[in-house]
Design a protein that fits this description.
Elements lengths: L1 H8 L7 H7 L12 E10 L2 E5 L6 E4 L16 E8 L7 E4 L1 H17 L4 E9 L2 E6 L2 E6 L5 H7 L4 H5 L5 E10 L4 E5 H19 L5 E10 L2 E6 L2 E6 L20 E10 L4 E5 L7 H5 L8 E10 L2 E6 L4 E5 L20 E10 L4 E5 L10 H65 L1
Parallel strand pairs: 3-5, 13-15, 18-20
Antiparallel strand pairs: 1-2, 1-4, 2-3, 4-5, 6-7, 6-9, 7-8, 9-10, 11-12, 11-14, 12-13, 14-15, 16-17, 16-19, 17-18, 19-20
Length: about 450
């Protein structure tokens, strides 16, 4: 039967184009079964198509191998992608299939998209215990639950089965994370596609932002080293040291997730797509407001922010920071301030010296001590405080460098966590994909 169909659609009326090329000495590539090739229609009938595929013989597509084609869309000269079923029949023709090429062409499209790192889209055709089965370009792929985000994830996680099933038919955008044609395996990620879109938005927003600009953003989350803020699709970091002039132990005490806050752009790194923000710089520095209202002998609530070998730094109410010299920590002589004080400790502190020019305070834990009645005592206090100030100047310059390093370290720690999560998710995805395959 097949031979009769081949005879009916093949033609020997004239010398083929490829025969003419052979006469001119052009080499012809040998076709193999399973190969995907291009061809153009040279004849059409109810029983099939005759194609020029660049070979000595014409290619034949029987009607049963072109069910996916709309006959009305066919015309002489139209280009088709076909699958080689038999490179040479007993009649000398090449047996081809349009339908079988559809799947192969789908793999080609997905492979190119993966190579170009392009997003693709597809329709959810089923869900299982591991995630969603999505069809794209005629190929069925799998999106693990860990790679579903937004609405699709919410629907999947619903306890209502009807709501969960409404995910079927939804169109999703994704990136291709794995393709294995031999194993008929395709793994997609909606999360990766969203991250790629965010990076594009962030790169665009960074080009629009300028250092010193004040913008409004939404708090995305908090961590031990600061607060992440979304600014029209670009996320920036408010380091813990830039949250408030007061001591910040827990960022959650200053902002809430989802809250809209105003921040100042203090640094932009276009190469790494990092935006450094500040909340405290929207308010005047404490010395500008409180520096003129404090006086010697005032007692304020304070918090120890740092212990050193020569004393402790403390921040009093309002955000002013000062030094508690080791001689002002205890009435008895001590060698280590950490024996008496600890970082984060709250206590009453007395102002015993004010340097408006350098914007520095000398503080004391010894509230009952008479610091001002004797001139000699004052000179002694000034001398010890000034010695400490000399060390403080070195510490200040060193701490500025430390703040930069700390911010970079904290950012890199966040990156390390992401990488670790990604690698863990890949292992999860592998297991979920295998579960999906068993389910199918």
């Amino acid at each position: 039967m097949e031979n009769e169909e081949l005879n009916s659609v093949s033609t020997n009326e004239s010398q083929s184009l490829m025969e003419k090329l052979l006469e001119q000495g052009f080499p012809i590539k040998t076709l193999r079964r399973g190969e995907i090739i291009d061809g153009s229609i040279i004849e059409s009938s109810e029983k099939g198509l005759l194609l020029d595929v660049g070979q000595k013989s014409e290619g034949v597509v029987l009607s049963r191998e072109m069910k996916t084609l709309d006959p009305k869309s066919l015309s002489i000269g139209s280009e088709l992608i076909v699958y080689v079923m038999n490179p040479e029949t007993s009649e000398g023709t090449i047996l081809l299939s349009v339908d079988r090429a559809k799947g192969e062409q789908g793999w080609r499209v997905l492979e190119r998209a993966m190579e170009d790192d392009r997003n693709m889209d597809g329709d959810v055709i089923a869900i299982n215990k591991g995630g969603a089965v999505v069809e794209s370009e005629g190929i069925q792929g799998f999106i693990p639950l860990s790679q579903l985000v937004g609405e699709s994830r919410d629907l999947y996680m619903s306890d209502n089965e009807e709501t969960k099933q409404s995910l079927v038919g939804m169109k999703l955008e994704f990136k291709i994370t794995e393709l294995n044609r031999r194993r008929n395996r395709a793994i997609f990620s909606e999360r990766a596609a969203l991250e790629a879109m965010k990076l594009k938005l962030k790169a665009k927003k960074i080009n629009e932002l300028t250092v010193g600009e004040i913008v409004e953003g939404k708090v995305l989350g908090t961590s031990s080293f600061g607060v992440f803020v979304d600014i029209d699709g670009a996320d920036g970091l408010v380091h813990i040291s830039e949250l408030s002039w007061d001591t910040v132990v827990d960022p959650e005490n200053f902002v809430s997730v989802g809250e809209l806050i105003k921040v100042k752009v203090i640094n932009i790194e276009k190469e790494t797509l990092r935006i450094a923000l500040s909340k405290k710089r929207l308010e005047p520095e404490p010395w500008e407001t409180l520096g003129q209202t404090i006086a010697l002998g005032d007692i304020h609530k304070g918090r120890i922010t740092k212990i050193t070998n020569f004393g402790a730094f403390a921040r009093i109410e309002g955000g002013l920071e000062g030094l508690v010299h080791i001689s002002e920590i205890s009435e008895s002589e001590i060698e280590d301030p950490g024996q008496v004080l600890s970082e984060g400790e709250e206590l009453d502190l007395k102002i015993i010296r004010i340097d408006h020019e350098k914007r520095r305070l000398a503080l004391s834990v010894l509230l009952d001590k008479d610091h001002f009645s004797k001139a000699d005592d004052v000179v002694e206090e000034v001398d010890s405080s000034e010695k400490a100030d000399d060390v403080v100047e070195e510490v200040d310059s060193s701490e500025k460098a430390d703040d930069v390093v700390e911010e970079v370290d904290s950012s890199e720690k966040a990156d390390d966590v992401v990488e670790e999560v990604d690698s863990s998710e890949k292992a999860d995805d592998e297991a979920e994909a295998n579960d999906s395959k068993e389910t199918k």
